[in-house]
Amino acid sequence: MKTFSSSLIISTYNWPEALRLCLLSVKEQSVLPDEVIIADDGSTARTAELIEAIRPTFPVKLIHIWQEDEGFRLSKIRNKAIAASSFDYVIQIDGDLLLHKHFIKDHLAMRKRGTFVTGSRVLMDKPLSEKLVQLQKPHVDLFQSGLTNISNRFSIGWLSRYMADRYKNQNIFTLRGCNMAFWKDDLIRVNGYNEVFHAWGREDNEIAVRLLNAGLRKRAIKFGGVVFHIFHPEVDRTRCRETDGHLLESVLHKSVYCTQGLHQYIGNFEPVTQVENILVV
Q: Most buried of 15, 155, 222, 274 (most Cβ within 10 A)?
């Protein structure tokens, strides 16, 4: 039985077909989040239309936060979504994922004060991904062809609990921003995501560095919190040297707090009990 509330933040950019499939998998969770916030980094109107279409049958409050498309600004839109969230625990995914039916339940079971949680993913190949997107089928057979990462497919409670504080808990590279969870007050403490990141990569590693420097511990959610990643071409990684530099700076300076972060949005949103669509530029 769920004993407290959570916000699920889903980041997206111009792939409404994948986002719809992701939202269908959220609807089928054995334990629902208390709200879902779509963190939209500048998608066209098709994404807003999708959210409007699915909202009437969605089982929890569905909030859409959008910003102008001015290039890769994932850190900024995540900060805006965090600021708009209403609940103490924030679970974070990307909109190109299908969730195992116990995803939220597994994450809530892993929560522990003084920690943040990092998960992994199962990769789906192109034929399987295209089939599921075309059919809008949010179910994945764990033993079907087209899946990789065998050990990441299964939700096994006792094994997940055993691994939580043992699996690479000091390694800042063993994490994925598409499957993480935090206490909201810890995110406020380190000022959320660092908005100096304007290209793909390392923003998730960098926030982990600051959380660790703030005295938190990293927990790994293995054999739980299962997600299936829909295939897409690799993003542009030509600016990885720049993002690696931002990460290295936080490591070398033992940073806890970033200058350009979450605090600029705190208090800028109406209570989400009264708001369903929020437009933020």
A: 222
